[in-house]
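Fold sample X.
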Amino acid sequence: MAPMFRHDDLMPLTDAIIDRWFFVMNGQLNRMRRCSKGPSEPLKSERDLLPGEWTFVKDLERTTTARTGYIFGTFWLRLAPGQTLADAKIEFPVRPAGVLMHGSSSHLAVRNVTSTRPYNDGFNLSDCQDVTFENIKAINCGDDGISAHGHCRYSVDGLESIGNATGICDTDTSKTNYRNIRIRDCIGFDLFFLDSGKYTIRDAEVISTAAKSLYLLGREAPAEPCRVTLDSVVIRREQTGNEVRVSPNCVLKADRVSLINLDVQATGGIIEITRSFIGGTVPANPPRKPTLHLWKDAEWRAHDNWYDLESARVGPTSFAETQLEAFCRVVAEESGSRWCVATETEAQATGIKANPFSAPAADM
């Protein structure tokens, strides 16, 4: 018989904490396929738990008497038959973040810090000013690897964001600068930028496996747009296809960027992309190449790019590889680009300051 264990008062809890919660069982992080910003399965009934699973059951009666915003409930664990709690090596997160800055934090430097398994963000920052981070890591965090809120002003030189719900999530009116970045094994978003901030990423590699790869989501005009700049960045999609999504009132500027196995879709906003690569073979059965889709209100400004696409669509009109000139006429601001097959090496090199047109024409 598989043993069941419960705890009725593990620690102070909120609904947001439960959305991000995990246990560590025998050294392995167990989220129960739940994520605060992405696909999230509902909590199971304790009766339906399989060995090695957990759940949380809210106590509505106790919650009505809790401090505002807090909840009560019971955590349940089911272990393998014959296994003891000591055998299972159960651990749970007790800190909300590895580094937490709220309020008037300013003129600080944070170096050589690794944040592992907090129940929220690895680095959770609100309204901090003139802060620098160097050589930091966020690993297996409940929510974001690093996240700016409010009116932050900070720079990061050296970040690894691995196995988090979101690699980077910056919001509000923050201005952030990232350099020397590696992101992989995230769940909800690899890169998520919102609201009216200005966000820059340079010299970065993103191995994308999250539910959403790169999303820009601005506020409604007349608010300032969400502005994202990518410089020498490789984003390579693994396992399944996905997309770069630019929403209305957003501006994406990209130079020397490789978007490999990723569709690009702009439902509005502005995309300015230069000396970059968009293409590859999306892992699928059968394989397919990515697509470019510009809705009628989206603006496209581009030059000297390399496209290896299945198709490009502007409004209701689709274009194939042999129709690059027609595509250029429709978008108005497109010059010096080519549409042809690229090898994996060539696609990767475009995002690391290599010349995207260095290969001999006969190899195209």
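Fold sample Y, listed below.
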Amino acid sequence: MPSVSPLNEAEAADAVREAAQTNSPFEIVAGGTKRDYGRPVTAEAVLDVSALSGIVKYEPEELVLTVRAATPISEINAVLAEKKQMLGFEPCDWGPLFGAQAGRATLGGVVATNACGSRRVKAGAVRDHVIGCRFVNGKGEVIKAGGHVIKNVTGFDLPKLMCGAFGTLGVLTEITLRVSPLPERVAVLAITCEPETGFRLLREAAKLPLDVSGLAYVPAERLGTSYIRVEGAQTAVAQKLAELQKRFAGQSGKPLDGAAAQECFRAIGDGASFADGRSDLWRLCVPATSAPEALLAARTEKTGPWCADWAGGLLWLGLPADADTAMRLRSLTARFGGHATLMRAGPEARAELALFEPETKTRAAITQSVKAAFDPKHILNPGRMFEGI
């Protein structure tokens, strides 16, 4: 497939404008780590925007950062760390899940797929941190939305609309985010227990006035482990950890600190348990209170590895990519609320199955209208999320 590689935003706009005039759809690529996430794109060429990289403006005192969309997350993390700051939504590196090299994920790809990690239970999703952006719509027009000030909430919030749109509404060229202070200390209480007990402990920890920043359960051959993360100043974390140990004194728990505490949640958010690629992969979002029942109903003898994040609100499930599994999981989302996403599968399954939760008739009509407004000729990543979109 031929590739067009603009060197700046103006060239990207020119390329999209020309494609719209000739009805020649693009597949949008930067780091390329998540090209197999979503339905196969029906396109005639690749729009490679990897050159749109670099820090545009960083104001540490204001906790605001503006970067070009193809800037690698690793580069952003390094710059923020120098000022003892971070991206509060804990961006995930899902590249290895799709056979790509770790460390190549870009901010644009993270925003487009709303790829946030375990800290969502405290800090919210990616869209809660994006305060402005620039993008090229399907007409080749450069659109500026939001601003560089956190309190700027006037007008329609287009930056949030771009989060999780998988590039179907516009080619992101620049993104402005609010950043967060890097905690002085991070610690984790790891409790060995069976799943039902583990989910209960996570829900109890979420209710404690400890401002927990991670709640996950990872199974093992016999008993699994509930991970409860706290962070902040040294003294505060020591007090929080002591409170957790006191609250769960009857459980088999041990504290993790430093690199070990950081690594366990990084691996959970990145889906490291599934990086060997041996199974198809689903992500099931349900209310945390329904997680044990949903897990029991979702698992079968064909279930591969699994784990839970967000206090059970997110279930990673190694299950087959077939119509029966899709129907069963969507019946669970209808019963409990939430949604089921087929995150990884072969190209045939991704072309045939509904990868994302099917929309109601009303919502589908809204999606069609939004697509028509931003990309009337369906030039940008056509079919990536839904057929015909």
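Sample Y note: The longest strand covers residues 185-193.
Also: The radius of gyration is 21 Å.
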